[in-house]
């Protein structure tokens, strides 16, 4: 398969995914193999919450829509233009995927196949259905992919390199177990936002998207705010009131009640609006339904600190306050070239 053939297959997948949305899903006559896959995908989306309680239709549709936007001929071309891919010798790459948000491992899956390698996938028990379905779709478009895609339930064997994603604890296990293999081992990371105190209501509403999308379960979700000394949170709370419906989701509400109770029993001072608690804390990792905050005096000093903590951070959100930060509302819409942990997956795959 040439690179152009592989790209065309994923463009077709993008067209297939573009048909589905929470408001309405409609067949497009130009999409390939809809007769085989359209209705079944609708059924799978509806069943996703029974497979994983956090995978509500809204969240699954958002992930599908994000990948539909990413998988275009223009985006794939821009992403891959700087690599020499067709000259690489194919390898078998093992993937150990997380399951915190829908299709969280798709970028690794795409990267392995687009570089001409074979993939050996161990899905998370929390996300066992969406990726195998999409694999069947691309195989239906290009049957040569059948020999390049394997899903395994047991022990991973006979592979050349591994990409594994997990917590800090599982990462230590991965690093030991795969010490003799080329690897990318991803640990826990968090995302933060740096405010200057003059953000518009629209920017703060967009920040709410960074906080509440996927219920805050992703490493790209903002879990910590840095605010200037003397900052008051009235404007922030007013803006994020748009997300109040989140408290009506039982799993989120249970986390809110539990974490709030733990904080109060520990006599922590909290700011609370009925569906989100704010706690002053130096840690970047806050529990679900809570965001930590910390005051800063000098933005240059904060920039220096964040640079030193870069290995703990996935995204930094700000209004151009911090170098390489991204705009409010964009954390869960990365480009194909926005690599997790800033590790270039394609370069890794081309050099093993």
- How far apart are the first and last residues' alpha carbons, in Å? 20 Å
Strand proportion, as a percent range, falls in 15-25%
Profile the largest sheet.
Answer: 6 strands, mixed
* Topology pattern, helix = H, strand = E: HHHHEHEHEEHEEHEHHEEEHEH
Output the strand order for the largest sheet: 8-9-10-7-6-11
The average pLDDT value, as a whole number, equals 96
Give me the secondary-structure category.
Answer: alpha/beta
Count up the helices.
12
- The count of DSSP E runs of length 2 or more, i.e. the number of strands, is 11
Specify the overall morphology.
Answer: globular
Low-confidence stretches are: none
- Level of helix content? 25-40%
Radius of gyration: 21 Å
Topology:
Blueprint: H1 3-17, H2 34-51, H3 57-70, H4 73-80, E1 92-96, H5 106-114, E2 118-122, H6 130-141, E3 149-151, E4 161-165, H7 168-177, E5 183-186, E6 190-194, H8 201-212, E7 222-228, H9 234-240, H10 250-265, E8 270-272, E9 277-280, E10 290-296, H11 299-308, E11 313-317, H12 345-351
Parallel strand pairs: 1-2, 1-4, 2-3, 4-5, 6-7, 6-11, 7-10, 9-10
Antiparallel strand pairs: 8-9
């Amino acid at each position: 398969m040439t690179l152009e053939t592989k790209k065309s297959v994923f463009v077709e997948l993008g067209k297939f995914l573009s048909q589905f949305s929470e408001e309405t899903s409609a067949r497009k006559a130009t999409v390939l193999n809809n007769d085989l896959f359209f209705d079944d995908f609708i059924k799978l989306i509806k069943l996703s919450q029974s497979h994983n309680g956090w995978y509500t239709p809204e969240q699954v549709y958002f992930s599908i829509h994000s990948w539909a936007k990413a998988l275009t001929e223009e985006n794939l071309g821009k992403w891959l233009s700087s690599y020499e891919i067709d000259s690489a010798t194919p390898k078998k790459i093992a993937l150990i995927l997380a399951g915190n948000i829908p299709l969280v491992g798709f970028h690794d899956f795409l990267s392995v196949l687009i570089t001409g390698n074979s993939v050996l996938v161990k899905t998370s028990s929390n996300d066992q259905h969406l990726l195998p379905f999409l694999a069947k779709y691309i195989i239906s478009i290009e049957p040569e992919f059948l020999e390049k895609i394997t899903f395994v339930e047991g022990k991973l064997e006979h592979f050349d390199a591994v990409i594994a994603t997990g917590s800090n604890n599982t990462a230590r296990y991965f690093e030991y177990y795969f010490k003799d293999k080329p690897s990318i081992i991803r640990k826990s990371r968090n995302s933060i936002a740096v405010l200057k105190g003059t953000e518009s209501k629209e920017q703060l509403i967009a920040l709410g998207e960074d906080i509440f999308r996927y219920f805050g379960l992703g490493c790209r979700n903002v879990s910590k705010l840095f605010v200037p000394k003397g900052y008051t949170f009235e404007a922030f709370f007013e803006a994020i009131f748009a997300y109040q419906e989140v408290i009506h989701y039982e799993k989120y509400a249970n986390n809110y009640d539990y974490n709030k109770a733990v904080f109060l029993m520990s006599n922590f001072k909290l700011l609370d609006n009925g569906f989100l608690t704010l706690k002053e804390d130096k840690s970047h990792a806050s529990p679900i339904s809570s965001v930590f905050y910390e005051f800063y005096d000098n933005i240059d000093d904060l920039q220096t600190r964040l640079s030193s903590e870069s290995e703990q951070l996935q995204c930094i959100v700000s209004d151009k306050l911090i170098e390489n930060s991204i705009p409010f509302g964009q954390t869960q819409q990365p480009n194909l070239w926005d690599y997790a942990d800033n590790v270039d997956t394609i370069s890794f795959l081309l050099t093993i």
